[in-house]
Amino acid sequence: MNLLRRLLLLIGLAVAPAVAQDRALDHPNILFILVDDFAWSDAGCYGHLWHRTPHIDQLAQQGMTFTNAYAPAPICSASRASILTGKTTARLNFEFVTKNEPGGQKLDAKTPLQAPPFTLNLPLEETTIAECLRSSDYETAFFGKWHVNAHFQRYLGWSPSHGPRQQGFETAVEDFGSHPYSWGRTSPNMIERRNEFLPDSMVNRAVEFLNRKHERPFFLMISQFYVHTPVRTPYQWLLDKYERLIPSDSPIRKERIRYAAFVETLDHYVGQVLDALDRSGQRDQTLVVFTSDNGGHPEYTANGPLRGSKWNLYEGGIRVPMIVRWPNHIVPASTCDTPVVGYDLLPTFADVAGLQLSDSDGVSFAPSFDNRQWNPDRELIWHFPYYHPEKGFGKAHNDIGVNDFAVSRTLPHSAIRRGDYKLIRFYEDDRIELYDLSSDISEQHDISKPGPKIATELKNRLARQLARMSARFPTPTP
């Protein structure tokens, strides 16, 4: 090796740690907490009257609360696939939950349309958040619910060919934690002592990751199983607490008592993660995002004042909480009213990591962090060409209301929001509904008739967007 090359090598070795340190300072760590079936109004900071969520509420006090945040879909797998890739479910052709094997919907009642065949796996050709951030030298880790591959060996089992490790996550451990999914046939003993919670192995793995020394900025995705069914709890002290707090005349009171205990359990585990981040000394260098994959389950929680619930495109099915904290970049206890959606997360994370994207349906909402008047000229798109429920469709309610606490019939439909206006198109009869969300957040007053200009414009915009995305549609039943 000649002298010049040796000198250059020595200079490179000396500069490398400084360059890595500069990158860590320029590009924040990202902690992304995605929770399951957590309704827009489930947290105290979003106005719930009796749910106790002190850690989530504190996060809101320390950061920015989004009042018009949306999931990309009203159902789990589709929403997660969209979040991971920054693409709409229509463009991904991944609009429903994954299954064990290919096929189509089989309902217990005849319907005029048949839905597209199931998509089982998020294609490896798609670029995920983790793969994107690794190109900017991020360390990536995933713990929790994946649910974008066909169930492998068991319900929610990670695929050896399409799991997190094949989608850009360097560290990934499959673990149900303390959720009832992990109980099997034996339930834990009931716990009477106040403020006592069981250890959660999935959360502990995430905490251990945070406690490590990191040479690179990290992206940690914690995908919680809470508060998805089955809603069962070993905490007698929480059941007793909400027995006192929840009014005696509340509908489905027993279910809501169990669900409130579930919500507080989730909050406890969120607090453990945030405490670990504080103890690691990385709090000020970490962007934290907390949100949900879709609206709440109608048999356990009230989605009101929003209409509908998980599984449909009324506001109760897709509007979700979102809280973002980034010390010295976001004003504490601030709010943002601009509509954002889950497929905006990848562009946002790429933005703060110094990356440019060319293939995303979302936009970065990082400009909202220091400019609460940020309001891009665009529309949000949802596409659900399926029926729900698959079992019990024939007996399900025909109407979708506000806090009706029942599983209703969801028909194939799509939706678009532009500004304050939201249009829903139903494919069985090509019917549309139009709502002005600024004055009708509960979607009770359809203003599509006698046909205002905005209805025609939004219907045409929706059709063009879906065509551009090569969306799949239901077809007539043979």
3D architecture notes:
- By secondary structure, the chain is α/β, with parallel strands linked by helices.
- It has a single domain, classed as 3-Layer(aba) Sandwich (Alkaline Phosphatase, subunit A).
- It contains 11 helices and 16 strands.
- The strands form 4 sheets. It has an 8-stranded mixed beta sheet with strand order 6-5-7-1-8-9-2-10. It has a 4-stranded antiparallel beta sheet with strand order 12-13-14-15, with helices on one face.
- A hairpin with a 2-residue loop joins strand 13 and strand 14.
- Helix 6 runs parallel beside helix 8.
- The chain starts with a helix and ends with a strand.
- The N terminus is likely disordered.
Backbone shape: globular
CATH superfamily: Alkaline Phosphatase, subunit A
Rg (CA only): 23 Å
Order of helices and strands: HEHEEHHEHEEHEHHEHEEEHEEEEHE
Tell me about the largest β-sheet: 8 strands, mixed
Q: Unreliable segments (pLDDT under 50, ≥5 consecutive)?
A: 1-24
Number of DSSP helices?
11
Mean pLDDT: 93
| CATH topology grouping | Alkaline Phosphatase, subunit A
Domain module count: 1
Let me know the number of strands. Answer: 16
Q: What is the SS-derived class? A: alpha/beta
Work out the helicity level.
25-40%
CATH classification class: Alpha Beta
Spatial strand sequence of the major β-sheet: 6-5-7-1-8-9-2-10
Distance between the termini: 75 Å
If classified by CATH, what would the architecture be?
Answer: 3-Layer(aba) Sandwich
Strand content: 5-15%
